[in-house]
Amino acid sequence: MNVQLADSSPIASRRPVAAAPRPRLRSPEPEPLSLRLRTGTRRAHRLVERLAFVRGLLRGLLDPPSYLQLLRDLHAVYGALEAGLRHGCVQPLLLPLFRPELFRQAALAADLDFLHGDSDWRQRPLSTAGAAYVRRLEHIAEHDPSLLIGHVYTRYLGDLSGGPILGRMAALALGLSGRQGLAFYDFPQIADYAAYKAELRRCLDALPLIEAQAQAIVSEAQQAFSYSGALFAALPVPT
Fold first, then answer.
1. Looking at residue 236, what is its pLDDT?
2. What is the pLDDT of residues 155-196, one digit of tens each?
3. Where are the beta strands (DSSP E) in 157-225?
4. Residue 221 is assigned to a structural domain of this protein
């Protein structure tokens, strides 16, 4: 007796079914470096903004000798950073960030000559915090120049963002009516600060970094804010 099973029979329907192809999992796109730097340094940035010297400057209050000490320290800091960039610009990672239009040491020297009235300030010692900052920059320039990227972000983007406001407050506090003594806050070769900052962020995002390098640069930028904060922390503020 032959029994024919209809196709609709439960027994007949038990045919092997090809497994559906698994969708390929795409690796998440890495966060842009400029965004990682911004989020990674947010807390450190806020801590610096809350320091008494910074808050005083934003109210137009300055202790002139302390301000001159700060400028002398910054003159040495930018000198070390810019020497490192000049030396390291042969490296592909640093070449796009070698931008003399951003350099601040010469502007600071002009301000110090004017505010001191002579060049004797060059013989005066750095503060303890200023000397430590310079040593850090010189060390990484020699041993791991890519970490200078964290300082480029911290210093120059900060100068472009806050410089105009700080310059006006410094002029008010020091009683300066012209632009002499305020060259540090001006970037005469940059016509549009906002457009330039956007282009600089795109440049940072385009750097061919591996993950370990990106993490190290963010960590170094956090340290840069700490070094910067130490410059301000010991400076008195008039009340």
1. 83
2. 999 999 999 999 999 999 999 988 899 999 999 999 999 999
3. none
4. yes
Domain boundaries, position 186: 33-233
The residue among 114, 235, 103, 109 whose CA lies nearest residue 174 is: 114
Lowest mean pLDDT segment, chosen from 1-10, 30-39, 197-206: 1-10
Helices (H) and strands (E) in the chain, counts: 10, 0
- CA 189 and chain centroid, separation: 20
Mean pLDDT, residues 103-127: 96
Cα separation, 41 vs 46, in Å, equals 9
Residue 27 falls within a domain, yes or no?
Answer: no
pLDDT at 113 over 90: yes
| Spatial distance between the Cα atoms of 133 and 49, rounded to a whole number of angstroms | 18
Half-sphere exposure of residue 108: CA atoms within 13 angstroms, side-chain side = 21
Number of domains in the chain: 1
CATH number for the domain that contains residue 155 = 1.20.910.10
In a domain, 101, yes or no: yes
Average pLDDT over all residues of the chain: 90
- Is 8 part of any domain? no
CA-to-CA separations, 143 to 53, 97, 201, 208, in angstroms, rounded: 33, 18, 25, 19
